Amino acid sequence: MEKKKNEMFRLLLFFFLLIGIEVVQSSSHHHHHHRSHDYCCSKLFVFGDSYVDTGNSRVSVSRGWHKPYGMTFPGKPAGRASDGRVFTDFVASSIGIKSPVPYQWINLGRPELVKYGINFAYGGTGVFDTQSSYPNMTVQISFFQQLIQEGVYSKLDLNSSMALVSAAGNDYSAYLARNNGTLKGLPTLIELVVNQLALNLKRIYSLGVKKVVVNGLHPLGCVPLITALSSYQKCGENENTLVRFHNLSLKQAVEKLNNETNSSTFRILDLYSAFMSILSKKSNTGSLKFSNRLEPCCVGIDSAHACGSTNENGLNMYRVCDNPEAAFFWDLVHPTQEGWCAVYSSLQASLEQIY
Questions:
Q1: How many domains are contained in the chain?
Q2: Nearest to 126 by CA among 269, 268, 19
Q3: For the whole model, what pTM was predicted?
Q4: What is the pLDDT of residues 115-168, one digit of tens each?
């Protein structure tokens, strides 16, 4: 009984913190593989959470706007949940375009900002409402629809565009936080989340985007928030079981969508396999020179603080590893720029099939 209680507490803590740790993202990297796919995508539209947000979350709330976030790129905090670039930046670079600007920027009166698409993602958000102050995925897509109705993007623009959609688990964290960590309704919730996610993908397609790519869930049990309980030595199997259920349901939903549209419009990026291939490597090869792959680079000095925390006197209440490039995880739930680069490299062949 005590063991079960501890497992529930662990899940609750994990998801609660996952939802609380807000976005941070970035742009390009010396590892970036610039390829110009003229026949693919001149624009990228991004929807989701902190794994893809590049600066929509507010300065007053998001840790991504506070040091030491952004220390690797652009050299200062920029609203990305990392020391540097995030997944969006690598995907944009791979199709030969600049990372699309955050939606919050488009009111700056500079029409050239929308040239490469727009990033509508907000850290901490989910498919459903997870953060009262931020738009869920349905609302993010409505922002996109409004811009199309206003003539910001033409049919031709949309024909040569790609959508990147990320749902990294905030719906589950919100549920567990609301229900004192009970796991009872999670299978039903997974079904609801995946069904709504499928509707969102279909809606993006109906707006004219011809390539719609959705991230599968990464191994939530391997994030440092969970691996800390084993001194960063092993992943949590309960969390990863939940993830595999979500990913199987998503695979079935996407296959159904492709059958309905008689196309291969909808694709899944297998983040679970990409993360696991890196985290389970027994030897350091190529660019994967991560020391302890389950340990974060930036952590709070105690359990009451997190990466980016300061006290009332403005003193830093966190510590940062000597070499972020040797760490896969940046903070308790987000990869480093180097981590995202490794994930991107693992997924490169899948991405090129989409292009």
A1: 1
A2: 19
A3: 0.89
A4: 999 999 999 999 999 977 899 999 999 999 999 999 999 999 999 999 999 999
What is the dihedral angle through the alpha carbons of 220, 335, 126, 5, rounded to the nearest 10 degrees? 30
Query: Residues with catalytic annotation?
Result: 50, 331, 334
Is the residue at 300 inside a domain? no
Task: Please report how many Cα atoms fall inside a 13 Å half-sphere around the Cα of residue 121, on the Cβ side.
Answer: 38
Structure tokens at 98: 């600049």
Residue-range definition of the domain harbouring residue 267: 2-284+337-348
Q: What is the full DSSP assignment across 89-133? A: HHHHHHTTSPPPEEGGGGGGS-GGGGTTEEE---TT--SS---TT
- Tokens read off for 56: 């929509």
In this structure, what token pair is assigned to residue 41? Answer: 């995508």
CATH number at residue 66: 3.40.50
**What is the Cα–Cα distance from 272 to 278, expressed in whole angstroms?**
10
Coil, helix or strand at residue 355: coil
Separation of CA 224 from chain center: 16
On whether residue 187 sits in a domain, the answer given is yes
Looking at the domain assignment, is residue 263 inside a domain?
Answer: yes
Residue 308 lies in a domain: no
**Helix (H, G, I), strand (E, B), or coil: what is residue 101?**
strand
